[in-house]
Structure formats: structure tokens, C-alpha cells
Design a protein that fits this description.
The complex is a heterodimer of chains A (about 425) and B (about 280).
Chain A lengths: L2 E13 L8 H13 L23 E13 L3 E6 L5 H8 L7 E6 L3 E4 L12 H11 L4 H15 L14 H13 L5 E4 L8 H18 L2 E5 L3 H7 L2 E6 L2 E7 H12 L5 E3 L12 E10 L8 E2 L4 E9 L6 E9 L4 E8 L9 E9 L8 E10 L3 E15 L2 H4 L27
Parallel strand pairs in A: 3-7, 3-8, 5-6, 6-7, 12-18
Antiparallel strand pairs in A: 1-2, 1-4, 8-9, 10-11, 11-13, 13-16, 14-15, 14-17, 17-18
Helix pairs in contact in A: 3-4, 3-5, 4-5
Chain B lengths: L10 E4 L9 H6 L1 H16 L8 H20 L9 H22 L2 H4 L1 H4 L8 H30 L13 H23 L4 H15 L12 H9 L1 H14 L6 H26 L2 H4 L1
Helix pairs in contact in B: 2-7, 3-4, 4-7, 4-8, 4-9, 4-11, 7-8, 8-9, 8-11, 8-12, 11-12
The chains are: A alpha/beta (about 425), B mainly alpha (about 280).
Chain lengths: ~425, ~280
């Protein structure tokens, strides 16, 4: 099979903080050394990776570093990674919105990128006028758009509103129209960012279906980025996993998703230590194991909103008759303190010396689809801190597919309870 | 036996793009976009207005009236013996085209950051569409000028067309190049140095007074005349007046100088713009 895309040693550096060197003399110095003397940019420092939490030496962040991969024609490639792994930057470079700092890529065929739905729509213009404008922005010729007009209108389902300015469209219609234009491009390569996070479930299903058709029926190549692994799995056959700007792995999409879940990527659902070797703690409390998992599920399965979530901590108590208590704090990835709870291990007698397992269960349908970070604290008599361990566990809660059908968006909000809900008539209305 | 695959690519992107690599082929491919953008700008300009395209006339007419009142009557500046209304209208029509091109292209990167950040197309399409769109506006305003001209002519005013009217297309191209070239340089530099954005608006206003819009070059004081003539727009406007009104200081040297500056700034502007385009989204 022929290759559609070949990426070679692609790197992209961003400047942190102030831009430029931000003095004209600094800019001149850079220009002088790189362009006239032909040397490396003195303001770039090679060999630093893009770990956001660690403060680097330079004020350059490598958003992508030495990326190499190839995509065959007719293949759908899923690009997976945490926030900040470099997914969007990679798509931006491949769709030529920005250019690489080092290395490059080669492409065979026309590229259409859909990094955002409705790019370039003008609110005052009618739906029809916007179809032409948007199509042209995405690189279609006018006669091509004309040729496809009926299909686009049909797919978007906006026939009645074709002559209405799009500013009067509902947001759903707007998104449908925008996707319809992009999906009907005659490009050999389609680059799609997380555009499906908008629109209702039915339409998302339609989009994924359409993209599947594009790939299978018309043999076109698709590059797809999404946080939602369900949609990646549904669409893509191959995947690449990015972490901190580097290509961690590439291969079959199921393997890549598995790898991602197992938390090569910052997920920390279980930790084990050996007492006397590396167990954290002190001469009163030592931790042996910490784990969080979905109840009644193998630990390789993802935790979803529909699962009871079990936390277990194995610890060595070295106090006699210690009135030990355990407190857990849960934060979300944005640092919001979600909850705080604790229990006294044995109210009557306190704990004897020995190895204990303390276990807590969070009910299902409580926490939302987010990343959660656990801190644990062992106390004595609810007053004295015996040992405190921060960021001991990190878990990601995913959508429960069975309760949601085909929806590719994450739920907004902090909690995700299941409401009991009913609608009944309270009065007849007759004209 | 190993088969060596001959790889053919349609597009190769590397980190170092040459200064002179202009995406001309791409721009040609996107010519429909240019037309649609012009249409968008013209249509959205008067959507939801009552007077609609009439707004194209109102601005120059009122500006001219104010100029007649302030500079003609209060200040009593010379108009080379031409009817004041016609004299100012000629200057304003030409100046407006240049100024619109300059001001609107000078914010291309800022105004389109959202769009440029999401999709690739040759960025030069946008400034080209601005200049083309302004051309329509200029055309309408030029028709207005010619109607007024005809009115004064029939009233027996001392105005006449000269052979220099044949230079009219050249004048339009020069104004477009000058406005576009300067605008491209400014927009490229404002992505890094925001200060320029503030400078442009009042800079263009001030520049108008250093151009022969409200006074003829012949009435400029001798010692400053060279200074005024240094402004490339002076040669263009003087030629414009000479062509349609029969008065004005026409010289090939002046026009040649304007042509030289216009071409130079156009080439420089396109090169700088092209250089900035590929990475501007990281800095804007």
C-alpha cells in the first residue's frame, strides 16, 4: 500500500513566558546566529522533555520531540494521549496551521483539516452562502461544492433554513451544517480534532458513521484525535500514543488504548511496596499497598461512572492499642477538593501491632468522568498526624457506555448522579 | 530482489522554508475563496442596514462637505482654481482607497487569528481579498466622483480630462500595491510588536495631511515641497487630479518615484508576510 503521510523527526518548540526574546537586540542576536552564522538558535536548549510539572532550565518547551511515523492510504489513525501530550500541536502542524521547529513531514493527496467545527462561518450570511465560504476555506473549488450541495444540505438536515442567516440557527443546526461541509470534502486525507464533543448523541453517531464510510467506502485516510476512547476505537484501526511530546508507542488501536489505560500515562491505580525495603511511612505506620478499582471487575477494565469504586490501603501498624484513623481526600485534576472522609479503624480497642487492610467503597453514579487524585492520612486519636501520603492514587473515571448509548462528549460538572425523573400531565389543555 | 520504492509526495513541509518560496500555486487554487471572501465582506457590510450600499456614498460626500467648509471656507486653502467640492472629492476618493487597503490589511493577522489558528489556506488570500473588495467600493466612489465631475462640467466649470486619464489603471494598481505592501509589513510586525497597531490609525490620518489631499502641491511652501513629494501618495494624487481636472503638478519623475516605492513595498510586504505567516499563530 502506498503511504499517505510520512512524518520525520518532527519537533516543535514553544517559547514560555514572554515572546520573542522580546527585546529587539535579542531578536537580532538570534537572527544573526541562526541565519547569518548558520548555527543553532542560542535560545533553544536541546534535550529537555515537556514535563509540565517540572520546571525546566530554559524557557523553551518542546511540545513535540522527534516524532516519526507513517500512515498508509485508506488508514484511520487514532492519536491518543493526555492533555498536553502534543496531540493538538501535531494536528496543527500536519494541517499546516503552524510549522515545525525541526524536521518535517510529507503528504500525498489533498488534506482537509477539521480542527474546529464551523471555522470561518460568517453569522450574517445564509446557510447556503456559508456552505460555499466554508467549503472554499477548506480548499474546495466552487464547482465541487455546487456538485455536493444537495448532499451537504441533506446530511445537515437544514433544507428549510438554507436562506436564513446562520446567526439564527440553533447551535445544533450550526454544528450539523459545519460537519456536513467538512465531511463532504473531496480530500484524500481528513484530519479531525475533537469536533464531535459538540452536538447531540444522534448526530455524533451519524458523524462517526460518516467518517467510517469515508474511510471504508471511499478509501480515504483519516487522522483522528479524541479524548474519548470509545469513538477512537469505533473509527480507527491503528493508533499512536503520545506522552509529553514524545511518541510512546504505535500499533493496533486496541493495544494502544490498553497501554494508555494501564497508565503508562500517569494513571496510578495500584502501588505495592516491600516492608523494610521501599515502603513509605515511619516507625509508626508503613504503607504496603494502595489500590483503587471498580467493584466486581477485573482491574484491567476501566472504572466507569456506573461502578462502585473500591479503595484499599494495606498498612503496617507498629503502635499497640493505637486509636488509628484513616482519612482520604479526593481532588480532581484541576485541584478542586472534591471530598474528604475518614474512619476510625477500631473504636473499641484501637489497633494492635500488625498488618491491616482498610477498605472503603464510593457508591456508583456519584463522581463524574474526570481524573481524580487521592491523598491519604493516618492519624492517632483524631488529633495527631501519624503519616501523610499525597497523590498516592490517581484514577480516571470514564463514561459508562451502557447507560449512555453513543455519546462522545464528556459530561460537564463535578458530580454525576442518576436522577429519578418523570413527566406526567397535570392538567388538560383544550382550545 | 529488493524493490526500491519511488516515493512521490504532493507536499513536503520542513522547518526551514526559504524566504522566496511563495505558495503561488496554492493561492491560485484558492481563487474561489478570494471571490467568496470579497462577496462576504461586501454583503455583510450592509446587511441589516436600511440604506444598504448607499453607505458607500455617504462617507465621501460628508467628508468632502466638511473639508469644503473647514479647509476651503474657514482656512481658505488654495484649490488650484478648481471647484472646491470636486478638488476635495478627487483627493478623498483616491486617498480612501489607499487608506482602506492599508488599515484593513494591517490587522489581517489579528482579525483572523481565530480562523488562521484552525485551518490552513494561503494567508495571502485574505489581504488580496481585502484589496479586491475595496476596489469595488472604490469603483462605486469613483462613479460618484465622475457624476459630480459631469455636473460641474455641464455647469461650465473650467475642468477637462487630459491624456493622463489613460494612466488611471496604473494609479489604481499603485495605490493598491502601496496600501497592501505597507499593510502586510505592519500586520506581520504587529504579531510581535503590538505598538504598531496603535500607530497605524492615527498615522494614516497624519499622513493624509502630508499628502496633497487638502491642498495642491503647487501651494505647498517651497522649502517643504520636497518633503511632501517624498510621500509616494503625493505623486499618485497629483497625477489623478491632473488626469481628471486638468490641474496639478504632473511629472514623470514624481510618478516614477511613486511606482518605485509602491513596487518595492509590495515585494517587501509579501516576503515579510510570507515569512511571518508560517509561525504567527504561536505568537499572536
Amino acid at each position: 500500500m502506498a503511504k499517505a503521510i510520512k512524518v520525520e523527526n518532527l519537533s516543535k518548540a514553544y517559547q514560555l513566558g514572554q515572546f520573542g526574546t522580546n527585546t529587539i537586540s535579542g531578536d537580532v542576536q538570534r537572527w544573526w546566529t541562526t541565519k547569518i552564522l548558520g548555527k543553532e538558535d542560542p535560545f533553544h536548549i536541546i534535550g529537555e522533555s515537556n514535563v509540565r510539572s517540572v520546571k525546566g532550565k530554559s524557557n523553551i518547551a518542546w511540545s513535540l520531540k522527534d516524532i516519526n511515523f507513517e500512515v498508509q492510504q485508506g488508514e484511520a489513525l487514532g492519536i491518543i494521549g493526555q492533555n498536553g501530550a502534543g496531540k493538538s500541536t501535531l494536528l496543527k502542524i500536519l494541517s499546516r496551521v503552524t510549522s515545525p521547529t525541526q524536521g518535517g513531514f510529507k503528504i500525498k493527496g489533498r488534506v482537509a483539516s477539521l480542527l474546529e467545527v464551523g471555522t470561518g462561518f460568517h453569522p450574517e450570511l445564509s446557510g447556503k452562502e456559508n456552505i460555499f465560504l466554508n467549503g472554499a476555506i477548506l480548499g474546495m473549488r466552487k464547482h465541487e461544492i455546487k456538485h455536493r450541495l444537495d448532499e451537504i444540505v441533506d446530511f445537515a438536515g437544514i433544507e428549510r433554513y438554507l436562506e436564513t442567516p446562520v446567526k439564527r440557527y440553533s447551535s445544533g443546526m450550526y454544528v450539523r451544517l459545519a460537519f456536513a461541509v467538512a465531511a463532504h470534502l473531496d480530500a484524500e486525507i481528513l484530519i479531525v480534532d475533537e469536533v464531535l464533543a459538540v452536538g447531540d448523541a444522534e448526530f455524533q453517531k451519524k458523524c462517526i458513521g460518516k467518517m467510517g464510510d469515508i474511510r471504508k467506502g471511499e478509501g480515504r485516510t483519516i487522522l483522528f484525535v479524541s479524548h474519548n476512547l470509545v469513538s477512537v476505537k469505533a473509527l480507527c484501526s491503528r493508533g499512536i500514543l503520545l506522552e509529553n511530546g514524545q511518541l510512546l508507542s504505535e500499533g493496533n488501536v486496541n493495544d494502544i488504548i490498553q497501554l494508555y489505560r494501564e497508565g503508562g500515562v500517569n494513571n496510578l491505580t495500584e502501588q505495592n511496596w516491600e516492608i523494610g525495603i521501599d515502603a513509605p511511612g515511619n516507625d509508626k505506620i508503613r504503607l504496603k499497598r494502595a489500590a483503587v478499582f471498580a467493584e466486581n471487575k477485573p482491574s484491567s477494565e476501566p472504572i466507569t461512572t456506573a461502578d462502585n469504586i473500591v479503595m484499599e490501603f494495606d498498612f503496617l501498624n507498629q503502635l499497640d492499642h493505637g486509636n488509628v484513623d484513616v482519612t482520604v481526600d479526593i481532588f480532581d485534576s484541576e485541584g478542586v477538593h472534591v471530598t474528604h472522609f475518614g474512619m476510625i479503624c477500631d473504636k473499641e480497642n484501637g489497633l494492635m501491632k500488625g498488618l491491616y487492610r482498610t477498605r472503603g467503597v464510593l457508591p456508583c453514579n456519584l463522581l463524574n468522568t474526570r481524573r481524580y487524585i487521592f491523598h491519604v492520612l493516618f492519624g492517632l486519636n483524631q488529633r495527631e498526624v501519624l503519616y501523610r501520603h499525597e497523590e498516592i492514587l490517581i484514577m480516571e473515571i470514564e463514561d459508562a457506555i451502557e447507560t449512555r448509548g453513543f455519546n462522545f462528549a464528556k459530561f460537564p460538572g463535578i458530580i454525576h448522579p442518576v436522577c429519578s425523573w418523570e413527566t406526567k400531565q397535570i392538567q388538560q389543555y383544550e382550545n | 530482489m529488493e524493490k526500491i520504492e519511488e516515493e512521490e509526495w504532493d507536499l513536503e513541509v520542513t522547518s526551514d522554508r526559504g524566504l522566496f518560496e511563495l505558495p503561488l500555486k496554492d493561492i491560485w487554487h484558492f481563487r474561489d475563496l478570494l471571490v467568496l471572501m470579497v462577496r462576504r465582506d461586501v454583503v455583510s457590510f450592509y446587511k441589516q442596514t436600511i440604506l444598504g450600499p448607499l453607505w458607500f456614498f455617504i462617507q465621501p460626500v460628508f467628508t468632502t462637505l466638511v473639508f469644503v467648509f473647514v479647509f476651503g471656507n474657514l482656512a481658505g486653502l488654495s484649490t488650484d482654481g478648481l471647484p472646491q467640492f470636486l478638488f476635495y472629492l478627487a483627493g478623498i476618493t483616491a486617498w480612501n482607497y489607499f487608506a482602506d487597503c492599508l488599515i484593513k490589511t494591517s490587522t489581517v493577522f489579528r482579525d483572523n487569528a481565530q480562523l488562521f489558528g484552525k485551518v490552513y489556506f494561503p494567508r495571502l488570500v485574505v489581504p488580496f481579498s481585502i484589496v479586491t473588495g475595496n476596489l469595488i467600493r472604490f469603483g462605486v466612489q469613483f462613479l460618484l466622483f465622475m457624476s459630480v465631475w459631469l455636473y460641474f462640467y455641464l455647469q461650465g466649470a473650467d475642468i477637462y480630462l487630459t491624456w493622463a486619464a489613460l494612466l488611471f489603471p496604473l494609479l489604481v494598481v499603485l495605490m493598491a500595491f502601496l496600501g497592501l505592501g505597507l499593510g502586510l509589513m505592519i500586520t506581520a510586525m504587529t504579531t510581535k510588536y503590538r505598538d504598531l497597531a496603535f500607530l497605524v490609525n492615527f498615522g494614516v490620518q497624519l499622513l493624509m495631511y502630508a499628502t496633497t489631499v487638502i491642498y495642491p502641491l503647487s501651494s505647498a511652501p517651497e522649502q517643504y515641497r520636497h518633503l511632501v513629494a517624498l510621500n509616494p501618495m503625493t505623486g499618485i494624487i497629483e497625477t489623478f487630479r491632473f488626469a481628471f481636472l486638468g490641474e496639478g503638478m504632473f511629472s514623470w519623475a514624481l510618478l516614477g518615484y511613486s511606482t518605485f516605492v509602491a513596487l518595492g513595498s509590495m515585494i517587501l510586504g509579501v516576503l515579510i508576510f510570507n515569512k511571518t505567516e508560517k509561525n504567527f499563530i504561536d505568537t499572536v
